[in-house]
Amino acid sequence: MDRRGFLRVTLSAGMIAAVEALAVGCGDDGPAASVASSATPDDRPKVTTTPDVTTHTDGRAGVTRYGPLAASPDENGLLLPAGFSSELLAVGGETVPGTSYRWHPFPDGGACFALDDGGWVYTNNSEGYLDGSGGAGALRFDTEGRVVDAYSVLEGTTMNCAGGATPWGTWLSGEEIMTGRVWECDPLGIQPARPRPAMGLFRHEMVVADETRRVFYLSEDEPDGLLYRFRPRTWGDLSEGDLDALAVSRDDGSTSWIPVGGIGAPGGPRTRYDAPGAKELPGCEGIALDGDNLYVATKGDGRISRLDLAESRLTLYWEGPPVGGPDNLAVQTETGNLFVCEDGDNMEVVLITPDGHADPFLRFVGHDGSEVTGAAFDPTGTRLIVNSQRAPTPKTFDELVEGGISWPIGRTYMISGPFSAWSW
Fold it and tell me: Residues 376, 18: contact at Cβ < 8 Å?
């Protein structure tokens, strides 16, 4: 199949409607989510309190929840709510069925891109930890959601963790190494990937585009990592721009952006030490944008915070069960649901609704030592692609890469079902 064609960004990955995961706890809403606002009393979102949960309503017409997980796993080892089904798309180290491409090891961050023929592409990073063993690949789908092609979009890089989509239809793949770069990739695999060092050289996690403000937000996975803002000199061109870091007042959570002195080039200071007064965020992982709200997951303290970009204020949004090891995040704009991928814990994708309920959506059974990654919706919003990064596989990493550890290398799945339907 000819890969050439007009590409447009769909709701996915940290971008406007990406999805990332739900799950945990078999229906228990868990402790209250802590929510605050700097709005005036008349403008403040409605807050209601029950014995078990404090809920926050953001003004959407309703709340979408999916019901309890099944009592036993399906044929792929997943627990899902009634009405949802799973399909195994690719296995690390094995040829993708119907193609000649061998799927990469350790699948991580991903995003979906719509095509003008009605099909779509899912790009996905490879977190290969040895030099040059990372990169990114892609699955191309027809209008019926069938895989019709698979190929590489980035090779020769290292520990490509998460990333994000641009409004102009490219995939940004971030390296999670000390001087990691962001690579701008063609989801069709036709144009060569290009490094974007102006976006900073650090341990990259997710990237989110804010088309309204014409900036990008980037997270840094360090114990004292920062949240960055990149302001391109020209919108649509990431070769030049200014890098800032988030600062937060201890008194009231008000925020500001302070310039980063450099980009973290070798021989110079690391970016997180080159922005005096910036807010340290322990293990800053997933970020997802929903209107004026940027959700931020910090795995070091198990929190999900919300940055109100209009009010310039950072507040705690969720802490504690049923969320454990929050990592990749995504928001489905149709419902306002926040999807939280877990790194370890009990291997779930957890859904947090706008009114503050946390419900199970997906749990991997028998995937001990793995993490949930790369959740992204297709253009129809009825299919969610998600990975188990170190799921059991026939081949292990040492069989693919000399010097590798004998680890399983992951599987990629597609979940189909009524994502916009109410079931509780």
Answer: yes
**How far is the C-alpha of 66 from the C-alpha of 27, rounded, in Å?**
10
Letter for the amino acid at 233? R
Contact 379, 114 (CB under 8 A): yes
Q: Which helix H or strand E contains 288, and what residues bound it?
A: strand 284-290
Closest CA to 83 of 101, 64, 99: 64
Residues 181-193 have pLDDT tens digits of 999 999 999 999 9
Residues 168, 174, 180, 184: what is their CA dihedral angle, to the nearest 10 degrees? -30
Is residue 3 very low, low, confident or very high in pLDDT (cuts 50, 70, 90)?
low
Is the distance from CB of 146 to CB of 118 less than 8 angstroms?
no
- Please give the torsion angle defined by the CA atoms of residues 259, 164, 382 and 118, in that order, rounded to the nearest 10 degrees: 120
- Region of poorest pLDDT, from 90-94, 177-181, 342-346: 342-346
Dihedral of the alpha carbons of 301, 302, 307, 308, in degrees to the nearest 10: -130
> Is residue 400 classed as helix, strand or coil in its secondary structure?
helix
What is the DSSP secondary-structure string of 90-103? EETTSBPTTSSPBP
The residue behind tokens 């009010």 is 311
Cβ-proximal residues to 86 (8 Å cutoff; 6+ apart), any chain:
74, 76, 78, 80, 413, 414, 415, 416
d(CA 275, CA 96): 44
- pLDDT at residue 24 greater than cutoff 80: no
State how far the Cα of 248 lies from the Cα of 257, in Å rounded to an integer.
Answer: 9
The string of pLDDT tens digits covering residues 128-147 is 999 999 999 999 999 999 99
Q: Per residue in 384-409, pLDDT tens?
A: 999 999 999 999 999 999 999 999 99
The answer to whether the beta carbons of residues 167 and 193 sit under 8 Å apart is no
**CA-wise closest residue to 13 among 411, 372, 377, 415:** 377
Residue 31 has pLDDT above 80, yes or no: no
The whole-angstrom separation of Cα 385 and Cα 57 is: 28
Cβ atoms of residues 125 and 140 within 8 Å = no
Q: Please identify which residue in the block is written with the tokens 């590489």.
A: 152
- Residues 265-318 pLDDT 10s: 999 999 999 999 999 999 999 999 999 999 999 999 999 999 999 999 999 999
